[in-house]
Amino acid sequence: MTRSARPKVAIFGGADLRAAASVLGLEGADDGRPDLVLVDLRDASACAAAGALPCDIPRVVVADEPQRSLAAAVGLSAASIARSTEPAAIGPLVVAALPRTSRPATRTVLVTSSRGGTGRTLLVANLARRLASRMTVTAIDATGSGALGWWLSCAPRSWSELEGLAEELTADHLAVVAAEGSDVTRVIGGAPTAPTVTLVASTMRAAVSLTDVVLVDAPVLADERSRALLPIVDRVLVLSYDDPLSIATLAAAETAEDFWLLASQSRATRLAERDVFRRLPRDEHAVASVFAERGVVRGALGRAYDELADLIALDAS
């Protein structure tokens, strides 16, 4: 299970359009024929440059109202016209425009952090709840703490019960041992022991054949399990505070450019010389309100979770 090759996209527009393409996992095409052309029609020079490419290559364009009329006049379908460069606006159009063989669907999402206490498990639980209304989800607790099961109101079996199956774990095994959490999410991995790397990897492989998307609540970046899993998952989310210790830890870690860096309880736009992908606001009231019932986080933090769930759903389509 390795990361799929990304679609090659010719991008004609400003930095905001390129940033959106990066968020959606689209790789700029420096040479050869691209799979897709992204054009900001509000930029005259971008339009002129895009016009040099063959007209049979699928296009997704960004346009305000005046440009939308022009686009319609030359035969562009409304299904290929976005109103902004936001990833959530462009993403569905890209999915529809790309040839099916060019769409690398995200099936495995690993969530880790620069250090403990960043809200990683709460994020995984809330992503699982939100995604479960649209697709089948398996949530894996690779920490051995049992916290993910607690947040999803279930008690998964201990990892120690699965270690003997590490080399031959199948979807049928998981279907039997998985606990059913809130919102019909399958949950794997309970306290009090942490799994081996081999067991977590085989669990992910088996879970991919069982559900649409697999979310992994992984230990901190420095942990051997996280380091071993990073190369074999499709998408990585890294949570970090903006304090000096977290930033130093993040700077020392090897993080790929396509990792989604999330600033936890922070308004920072850059951490450790990296652009922040999304900010998760401090919302103590929203968190405190869900502790008793272990429900879905609402408020400002919940809206940030909603946005991330939407992007992962696009990734998985």
Strand content is 15-25%
Strand order of the largest sheet: 8-9-7-10-6-11-12-15
Q: List the total number of helices.
A: 12
Q: What integer is the average pLDDT?
A: 87
Q: By CATH's scheme, which homologous superfamily of the largest domain applies? A: P-loop containing nucleotide triphosphate hydrolases
* CATH architecture term of the largest domain: 3-Layer(aba) Sandwich
Total beta strands: 15
| Major sheet details | 8 strands, mixed
CATH class identity of the largest domain = Alpha Beta
Short description:
The chain has helices at 15-23, 44-50, 65-73, 87-97, 120-131, 147-151, 171-177, 197-208, 224-229, 244-252, 284-291, 299-316; strands at residues 8-12, 27-28, 36-40, 59-62, 81-82, 108-113, 137-141, 179-180, 186-188, 213-217, 235-240, 260-264, 270-271, 274-275, 278-280. By secondary structure, it is an alpha/beta fold.
Notes on the structure:
This protein is an alpha/beta fold. It has 2 domains: 8-102; 108-316, 3-Layer(aba) Sandwich (Rossmann fold), CATH 3.40.50. It has helices spanning 15-23, 44-50, 65-73, 87-97, 120-131, 147-151, 171-177, 197-208, 224-229, 244-252, 284-291, 299-316; strands at 8-12, 27-28, 36-40, 59-62, 81-82, 108-113, 137-141, 179-180, 186-188, 213-217, 235-240, 260-264, 270-271, 274-275, 278-280. The strands form 3 sheets. Strands 8-9-7-10-6-11-12-15 form an 8-stranded mixed β-sheet, with helices on both faces. It is globular and about 60 Å long.
